[in-house]
Amino acid sequence: MSINSDLFKGTLSTILLNLLEQHGKMYGYEITQKVKAITDGGFNLKEGALYPALHKLEAEGLVETSSEMVDGRMRKYYELSSDGQTAALNKMEEARAFIKSLQLLLNLKPALQ
């Protein structure tokens, strides 16, 4: 089942910060494929949403970039700054609290831990 894109957009920065916190340095296509794999195709992260979100995080000082030559092509990598590491932890706590409240409001059973 595909997830509503409006719900996805509202959590994109949290998703990106968490992925980078868990996996370290990643490049754009790698991020899209990781999201697809983790959600078994439920989230389809398109470049049109990914790169503006990454650029916003970079402008906020939460993500740093570097470039490397890979197979004759330049690849841009994204990784958390020290402020980004703190933000990732804070965003995850906010997300957990939100999900807990949402489960109560919608009378959903909590996900298995």
From TrEMBL:
InterPro entries: Metal_resp_DNA-bind_regulator, Tscrpt_reg_PadR_N, WH-like_DNA-bd_sf, WH_DNA-bd_sf. SUPFAM superfamilies: Winged helix' DNA-binding domain. It comes from the Bacteria. Pfam families: PadR. Residues 16-87 form the Transcription regulator PadR N-terminal domain. This is PadR family transcriptional regulator.
